[in-house]
Structure formats: C-alpha cells, structure tokens
Amino acid sequence: MDACRLPEEEAELFALAETMVAALRQYEEGLGVKHNPASVVWVGLVAAIAAVEAREAAVDAKQIVNQEMARADGEAKLYIASARVVLAYYYGPEWSDSWSATGFRNRFIDTSDSIPPRHELLDSLRNHLVQNGGYENSLLNVTAARATLAAVLVLAGQRKAVCETALVGLRRRLSLLIDELGLLMTEEEPAGTPSA
Q1: How many CB atoms lie within 10 A of CB 138?
Q2: Contact assessment for residue 80 and residue 111, using Cβ atoms and an 8 Å cutoff
Q3: Residue 142 gets which letter from DSSP?
Q4: What does R_g of the chain's alpha carbons equal in angstroms?
Q5: Which of 55, 60, 115, 175 is deepest in the core (most CB within 10 A)?
Q6: CA neighbor of 141 nearest in space, from 89, 56, 62, 80
C-alpha cells in the first residue's frame, strides 16, 4: 500500500478517523485487523477531540485575560510597589539578603521591565505572604490573594501541550492502522473476484 499522508487540519483528521472507525467496525474481523481495531482508534479520536475542545476553551479564556492583561499588568506594578513599601517595614528600606525570601532578588528592589519576571515576583510574593500572613496589609491591598495573576495563562499553556500530545497520538494510531492494513491487503484481486 502506498504511504498515505494524513490531513494537517484537525477537522479533516477527525473526519478521516471517524470514517476509518466506521469501516473498521464493519470490516476489521474479515480483514484480520488485530493491533489497531476500531475500539483503539476510537479511544484515540475521542481523546484528541476532548483535548482540542479543552485547548479551545483555554484559548477563549486566555483571550479574555489578554484583554485584561494591560490593566492587570499595570495593577501588578502598583501592587509590587505597594508590597515593597509594606515589606520595607519588616526588611528595611535597603536591599539585603533577607529580601530574597520575598522574591525581590536584586539590590534595586525594582518592578522589572518585562512581564514574566513580574509574574514570577508576584508568585513569590504570594507564597511569602501566605507563609507570613501578619505581613499582609489590607488597607494597601497587599495580600496573598491579590498577588495571583497568571493562573489562566499557565492553564492555557498546559492544555495546549495536552492537545498536541493527543493529536500526535491520534496521527500515530492512524498511521499504524494504515501500515497494518497495508500488510493485510495485497495489490492482488481478492479470491473469488471474477477477472475480466
């Protein structure tokens, strides 16, 4: 059997897999398919569809979050500045090694110029305030709860990775099925077929 190229588009891949499952349910016993039966291909298809749906839901949530990110990042900068003021009461106004426990890791105790380090700092501040609840200042809104910012973005990334794994698994299963069918079927006419 010639090598078949699987569709790149997810919808086309799913349609092909559904067609293959339907054909297998009807013909797998007669063909002698043992390693890639309809039930196994179906499980891979269902897992891939579920993973794509979860990824899409995460992407939708991420888009909503992205609309809020500029505002939230501005708030994060203000929060970090407020937290720095509150924590200076406990650690002193100048940077020292004791500041490291808070997540501020440089001598300038700044808010950083890029978003990922700010997210990391917010996570460290949240953890530090959870462990040291007495350091929270509700008047300035420097609390562990307010320090949480990036959870939805992390979830979206995780769901994308799960989706990619499921799609690779489905592609592999369909390729194995095609290979198995290639071994089971020959180019010769089936027995009992009248020749011209």
Answers
A1: 9
A2: yes
A3: B
A4: 28
A5: 55
A6: 80
Residue whose structure tokens are 């077929």: 193
Distance separating alpha carbons of residues 137 and 135, to the nearest angstrom: 6
Overall residue count recorded for the chain in this entry: 196
The one-letter code for the residue type at 13 is L
Q: Closest Cα to residue 180, out of 190, 188, 172?
A: 172
> What one-character DSSP code corresponds to residue 1?
-
List the structure tokens of 64: 């909503």
Distances (CA, A) of 70 to 67, 74, 95, 117, 184: 7, 6, 28, 15, 58
**Dist. CA 185–CA 101, nearest whole Å:** 66
Q: How many helices (H) and strands (E) does the chain have?
A: 4, 0
Residue 193: other Cβ atoms inside 10 A: 7
- State pLDDT tens for residues 109-140: 555 666 667 777 778 888 888 898 888 887 77
Enter the tokens of residue 170: 């489905």
What does the pLDDT look like over 17-35, one tens digit per residue? 999 999 999 999 999 999 9
Question: Which residue type, as a one-letter code, is found at position 96?
Answer: S
Contact 125, 86 (CB under 8 A): no
CB-CB contact of 104 with 95 (8 Å): yes
Across 4-18, 96-110, 111-125, 146-160, the highest mean pLDDT is recorded for: 4-18
